[in-house]
Amino acid sequence: MVPPLLRLIATQPQLLLNHAEAYAELLSEELGQATGRWKQRTVLFSVALVCIAISAMLAGVALMLWATTPIADIHSLWALLLAPMLPLAIAVCCLIAARSSANTSSFGNVRQQIKNDMAMLREVGTP
């Protein structure tokens, strides 16, 4: 007695080739999406790092200005505080965006398709 799957492969090999081609397309699409997410996260982390460095430099400059300027001559103390906060806020936003994009699972469609195929093979293999 020949198993149904083996009989199908022997009589219609084109079906197996079509299925393998569909898997290749699905893998290619998933790989492109994963690469895009990786590039996006890299850019977001890079922007965050640069913004943190800028914020640290501006905080140092603000601290030096505050330390060397007499209190009576400081007219806009808020500007000394705000200058390092803006790039720091951008860095935090970039880090949050990078972390949220990390939560998406890669190759989820491929995993689901493999599960579906395995379930179908179990159904065909049971008498």
Characterise this structure.
With 127 residues, the protein is mainly alpha-helical. The chain is 85% helix and 0% strand. It has four helices and no strands. It has helices at 4-11, 13-68, 77-102, 108-125. The chain is rod-shaped and about 100 Å long. The mean pLDDT is 86. The chain crosses the membrane at residues 43-66, 78-98. It comes from Rhodoferax ferrireducens. InterPro entries: Phage_holin_3_6.
- Elements, N to C (H/E): HHHH
How many beta-strand segments?
A: 0
Report the sheet-strand fraction: under 5%
Approximate helicity band: over 70%
Which structural class should the secondary elements be placed in?
mainly alpha
Cα(first) to Cα(last) distance is 12 Å
> Which radius of gyration do the C-alpha atoms yield?
29 Å
Average pLDDT confidence is 86
Low-confidence stretches: none
Total number of helices: 4
Specify the biggest β-sheet.
Answer: none
Shape: rod-shaped
